[in-house]
From TrEMBL, chains A, B, C, D, E, F:
Protein name listed in UniProt: CN hydrolase domain-containing protein
GO MF assignments: hydro-lyase activity; nitrilase activity
CDD domains xref list: nitrilases_CHs
InterPro entries: C-N_Hydrolase (IPR003010), C-N_Hydrolase_sf (IPR036526), Nitrilase/CN_hydratase_CS (IPR000132), Nitrilases_CHs (IPR044149)
Pfam families documented for this protein: CN_hydrolase (PF00795)
Active site: E45 (proton acceptor)
Cited PROSITE patterns: CN_HYDROLASE, NITRIL_CHT_1
Organism (species): Pristionchus entomophagus
PANTHER family: CN HYDROLASE DOMAIN-CONTAINING PROTEIN, NITRILASE
Domain CN hydrolase: 5-272
Family indicated by similarity: Belongs to the carbon-nitrogen hydrolase superfamily. Nitrilase family.
Length: 310, 310, 310, 310, 310, 310
């Protein structure tokens, strides 16, 4: 009684500072994925809005620069909202191609940016949003922190899906939260292209007894605008993020091996019937847990600085 | 002012790996029990979902096998949930026959199985669930542990009922918990068919000053599917669990003597008026206890690895 | 590396109101037991001091009689103290015969009587005392309640021994306390000669995974003094307590079957090597317990109405 | 500023085994008391539920009889609960007659009986319950022991009231507990009709510097049902409990002298202004105590064999 | 095995301010008692040293007078010490007459007086001392408070004896302390000659299940020196303390009825065999206590204002 | 200011059922490790006591066999206690060689076995014990569950050390507990020799920013006794557990690559100065956590079925 769904994994970079172009790219990949029978297409972290790798936004300890502020303003302008036109366009692309789209986006709310993942169903609806809980290092200068209210695990044609972005995958308590919500297909959009990424994905699959599918950007210097200061430091073909998208089954077997050489789209078939077999000897929130010793309290409140009481 | 209720005690085996067939069997017994005036029909441990006695699920120390995982997946598929269709069917059978059904089931929640007892009232409602607290020996490999939140004692037409499954009957602190909740008719679904079972039931009746009614499976090799590997090891009529259902009154007198020869259904009439007489000289949680010396703390929390706070 | 010790189980009645005669009887049995190679001889409940079965001590609801008070005074006079001459005599008997003696006694402290068990080692020392925690029915009129300070489990040549007297055996929380202290040979002196006693002993052996050895009085009317009022109600040979001493191994197998026909002494050999095997699948205070759900608090204080602090 | 309240003291027996009839009797006395201006009406020990004086419930040492168990079951059936219909009826009688009712009852909780006192206010509410801490002699066979959680001293129109039942009056540490809670009017329902009762009441008044009001049953053989076995042993008019209700002021002066000849109701007026005068030279928990030498520790925990923690 | 000892109870007044004369009186009574076969002779409170009833020692609130100071100095001079000549004389009287003497004395230590009881054995030894713990009313102006180090219960030819002086008998925690130490013959020297004294003594006997023997002064105005100011207020024969010595058995029966008319000496025979009979249904520190609810802590330290540490 | 300590990693199997021989093996390896300058020698899971891989202890669903019980008894006999002779011998070996020993042991307490790790310091002291929290699959039949009281992280010459045994490494909440206690060198004794083990170790190092050192058994069929039933199923040289010991630094770099071909001992040097560098961008219990969203509650109570309060 188990189905055999297919996921398309996109390994590509944004068109930096050009969100319409990025969305066209997203549409192209989505159309191809749909043609090839995928039920869901996964894009990397910050795909919409971009991950301008290598910038410092003019910050040193104790100082910011005018140039850095301008850089940020430009970056801010390329970000999107859940309700905006760009989001509606993506919803429509999903509907037109009868496929789910899960993509990294740079989201803005008020004056703060978030590194988010948007989940669009094939009904053309934004089903869920996750905001990265902990930006890493300099990311903390451009992105805010998500809160406990955006940690969805939802039903989809490929099973119950949830997501952890880049180094959120090194947050064991967040992972346990996803396990506890029943994640079957754990989506990991990232820009981390180290060799150690695959072992990490394997371990999460083994620990959570779920499929893990990771999509990483493949970013070249030429994805920056021609006039961008960074261009002068690199040749056009220089690779800034080298990919490494991968997939692993619930017993730790690698289904999609990283390819660090090119942009592209890969397909993974998921035999969901393996899940109960894999949880026979390890169910991280069931028989293989010790709630009498360890109990994780998760606060899912929407955290707002000001609360108005009527 | 005491009534004289009747319990039907089913001594039968599941149709292994065929839950619909087992439910039909359950319906047949229930109809007969109702026709014969029973107020409640009791089925053995794991009756729905089955107790595939003699299997090892491919586990030896340090190893699991693919065959064992597949066996487990097959077993997992036959398990039911409290809210699922199978449970609704049983609730309807109870309602249609105007009788209570108390039955052992293999319950699944998430990816973990539990050895449970479901209590259906004649109103067609699942009134209560108990999950076995301590699986024995190899059971620990296929079943998780229940927690303190599913230890019901509830009113029924046959008096206050509670349950202890198989070797839970050797957990004195759990028994005291049931006494403390006022159990009058202690139901003991089991697959233990040793000679020592009857003395154990007598002693619990004497200690708790309650009726004890035990229903044991009568399982033959042919209750496995024809294609099951175990079939080749046995003749069809070989008995794997030989029954031994029994009932005892609160002064330790045997009301239903074990019959180890056949599948069947037996009836027990309960003269509840004997309970206060029996507790005249022994009330295990009242005048015959020493709370100044011994005090049992019972934690009834629902133990969850993750607790969401909103 | 396990030894094979032997216990002698005495099934005899006291010489009522004649403690010196009872001690002589105890000495005779002890000598025989020692000659036959026993390591420990077990006497029944209240053997020293007596269990004048059938008396009512002149109490009805709301009244006591002078005759009842005198009967009680006579009974009080036959009771002994831990430090008194009778106790020293028993210690000496144990030493002279190089055997342990465990015997029920009626103990007095101040003006209250207790139904106790005294443990004498072959070194001629009173090693431990247990006082019955809960007298049953009319016993409550002649005996006080022990407290948590006299619940010993001690090393002996037959393994770790502890005791529960008569219906204390129906106190599950006391039994768990003995298991927790590591009892290996559970001694159950009694005056209960019902048919249900053997099943109770079997169940305790199964639950505690220990040997259970029970010694019951065999009391005839002629054990009362000739001049006692009760003598006129009975023929001399009328049996007031019919025995039923028994022994069971940790898997519930009966080692000594009750004989309800005569006074006598029986022998039981204990193969202690069976204990770890029996606890393989059930260790009531180890792997087969759920301390996260059930935790028993035991107060071992010596409870004294007045505490002197100097 | 002291008021002069009036207490009605009932000297009557229960209609044994006929709780509705006893409640009607209670209602009649209450109506009369209210008409005569009493603020509180006091009934004897075990008035509701009865004190079947002279019964032995078939217990002798080592034996219970079927007849005794049936007698107990009959007695059990006549007992009441704090929340039951009988209690509601008494609350309503108090409210309708605008009077406080303090009465002895045989209370049941679970399968154990207690000898209790229920306090109903004129608001029609059960304000407090006290359970006898130490049943005497054969009472120990039919009643359990109360614990430290039911030792109320509460405000009432006749001053601060508390109670000690029958021989609880010989528990000096309980009395000191009541003094310590500020008892002004010490209510002593009883079935003790010895000559020594009045001196005891005087001494408590002197020691506690409080009013003591004692209500004793006046029970005749005909208060048993016609078919009761005890009836054949007595003439109808034979007096089983002869009364002796009395009252004493805080200086030991007798306000109501015992009348051992008849059923009836007596009135006592309380001049509360005498209390501080009496405590001028003796305040048992104030200036006339030596807490540096004697300190009484009182444990008011509700002692429960099982404690549920959720 | 119980003996039948005899106590002589002296009802006489001191020769006030003339200790040698009082000691002669004491010797006379002792000789008579011994001749009449008494084992112990009991004198009233403050017999040696005197109870100058009716004096105010010149104290009003906020003021003392010179006359009062002088009165106190005179009183102080008549007091004795445990080691002094007067005490040695009494020890010798006891030895010479082969009798125990228990007498009230006014004891001095340093500059403080205590109302004490001295126990002399027939061996001519001061065996024990008790100092009154709580002087009453104006006594607090002339006597200090004893501490927990002088609360003896000791063996004697009349059984275990202890003492409570005058209104110490209204200190329930002190009485319980004496019960706990095993008092069998409770000696109550007093100067309280109210009617309520006998009921108090009866109640203590009933509560403690012990013999109570009380000796009260019979003091006339002429017992003051001729020159004493008080003499002018009274006729010589006016009775200032009227006696009322009495004795009660452990079931509350009066053995010696008060005689309020004269000085004299009375005899009481004690049938100690009644004690266990009486404690059959009430042992205040054994089976009739609730140490789980009430626990009395007694501090027996010798309380010294300055403690020297070596 | 960081030192460069050395760890010796033993890859060897026990001499099954021969604990003295295993201890000699342990001593040999320890001597070699010390000679080669190691500060700490790490042995695999269950090294002392053994991991009899491939056994089923005679358990199938619903049945245990006599042979299985005997096998268990044999296994039980080879287990050790923290205070026993074997433990003292290991402590002495550590002291004599001036080295720390951390080793897997099969520990017994009462009648239950635990899979533990014992930490011996070079002072010859057993410094800490960890008991496996969750046995896997068939292990649940032979080992009990540890509780929260044995989760040490302690100082040692190689830094702060803690341990997780075998699949405990897949318990994220336990790992977070160790991180929270400050583990620097995370020791992972195991019998898991799958290919996926190394990625798991890498991921833990990356997540916890600590060194991870894992020691796996290398077990051959001939490590079973000659007479063991399992011997007939294998050739002597057949490998049952193939090793795979490894070590990883806090940035995920492999320091010791698994060798699956032979028994042996390997050395790892730890440059502890890398730890703060590695935690610059990821501190799992510091700046890289979200306690406002995720809070882990850890219960470190010693869980005991019975708690004695004195």
């Amino acid at each position: 009684s188990f189905s055999m769904p297919k996921i398309a994994v996109v390994q590509a970079g944004s068109r930096l500072y050009d969100t319409p172009a990025t969305l066209s790219l997203l549409e192209n990949y989505t159309q191809d994925a749909a043609k090839n029978g995928a039920d869901l297409v996964l894009f990397p972290e910050a795909f919409v809005g971009g991950y301008p790798k290598g910038l410092d936004f003019g910050v040193v300890l104790g100082l910011r620069s005018d140039e850095g502020r301008s850089e940020y303003a430009r970056y801010f302008n390329g970000a999107i909202t859940a309700e905006g036109e760009e989001s509606k366009r993506m919803a429509k692309i999903a509907q037109e191609n009868n496929i789910w789209i899960v993509t990294g986006v740079v989201e803005k709310e008020g004056s703060t940016l978030y590194c988010s993942v948007f989940f669009y169903s094939s009904l053309g609806k934004l089903e869920a949003v996750h905001r990265k809980l902990l930006p890493t290092a300099l990311e903390r200068v451009v992105w805010g922190q998500g809160d406990g209210s955006t940690m969805p695990v939802i039903d989809s044609p490929v099973g119950k899906i949830g997501t952890a972005i880049c180094w959120e995958n090194y947050m064991p308590l967040y992972r346990v939260t996803l396990y506890s919500k029943g994640v079957e297909v754990y989506l990991a959009p990232t820009v981390d292209s180290r060799d150690e990424w695959l072992p990490t994905m394997q371990t999460i699959a083994l620990e959570g007894r779920c499929f893990v599918v990771s999509s990483c950007q493949f970013l070249r210097a030429r994805d920056f605008p021609d006039d961008h200061a960074l261009r002068s430091k690199h040749t056009d073909d220089e690779v800034l993020i080298r990919g490494g998208s991968c997939a692993v089954n619930p017993l730790g077997k690698v289904l999609l091996t990283p390819d660090f050489t090119k942009e592209g789209m890969f397909y993974v078939d998921l035999d969901l019937s393996i899940i109960p077999k894999a949880r026979f000897d390890l169910d991280p929130v069931g028989h293989y847990s010790r709630p009498d010793v360890f109990q994780l309290r998760v606060n899912e409140d929407k955290k707002s600085t000001v609360v108005f009481e009527k």
